[in-house]
Amino acid sequence: MSNVIELETEDRLEYSFFQNNQGIVQFRVRAPNDAHIALSTAAAEVDPMYEVYIGGWGNTKSVIRKNRTKPDVAEVPTPGILDANEFRGFWIRWQNGTISVGRENEIPPFLSWSDSERVNIEYIGVCTGWGATGSWIIEPPRGTGTAPGYQPGRPANLSSVCWVPASNGQVPPRSFAGGEDNGEPVYVVRAQFNGGLIPGKLIPSHGQSYVPWGGAENGVPQYEVLCDFPGQWLAASGGNIPPNALSAGQSEDGEPLYVGRVVHDGALTVGKVQPSHGVCYIAYGGQELSFPEYEILVQ
After folding, report:
1. Minimal CA–CA distance to 225: which of 141, 166, 149?
2. Which domain does 236 fall in, by range?
3. What's the pTM?
4. Chain segment 36-79, per-residue pLDDT in tens
5. Which residue, of 139, 172, 201, is where some domain finishes?
6. Rounded distance, CA 8 to CA 6, Å?
7. Beta-carbon-side half-sphere exposure of residue 275 (alpha carbons within 13 Å)
8. How far, in Å, CA of 141 to CA of 221, rounded?
9. Is the same domain home to 135 and 172?
10. One domain for residues 72 and 121
């Protein structure tokens, strides 16, 4: 999806579908109530499928529904979230079974749900109903459609991302330095550890990477280094994950993990952000330390 899509939807509850397998959709909608978005494996209402209802039930609440079946899997009061005379902006992100819905220019989602089933989302549909018509502006995900090296069809969180296998302190060309320790660059890496793919740090002079896990600083001699990355760091806190955050791995339970960093003991140290825990973990001094305020790596 490289261009803005503009369309009108009638009061019919019939989805208009377009392809999007990028892991995120950003849009603006003008409607009095019931802006419905489908996340589907095909350009049709098929199972498995998710639906996000924004401003349903007379513009009083928003929900996530799976396979067009009640009860809804997630629900939150959102009185007045839509407006019949004004465009309102939103984003929806799907990754590793987690659906997150947020407002434009806001990092934390107001609605989210995690599914144990992994559904391969390929199409997005939009519609209105229950007395509402709608005007839609579907935007390319920020920082992906125009990012250097972007390739259509790749997930948004993987565009322009290169992970290079290395070991024993090796630093591949054009590695991404995310921190500093005693004057030595600290590089962004990830490594397999105890069933997860864990973001962490590489200090070349130590001859290995380190990942935070299980309360400890765990040395891992084999790792992947982030290279050729044009991203930047944003201040964040708690489990607030920006829509364009770099997903760098997953926990042993399948939860997406992101790259974070903090200043501790005079060092700028790279670690992992685990949204459900609301903190950034770093491996430092033999321990896994947690910080509720941190910087997170975005594209």
Report:
1. 166
2. 161-298
3. 0.53
4. 999 999 999 999 999 999 999 999 999 999 999 999 999 999 99
5. 139
6. 7
7. 27
8. 36
9. no
10. yes
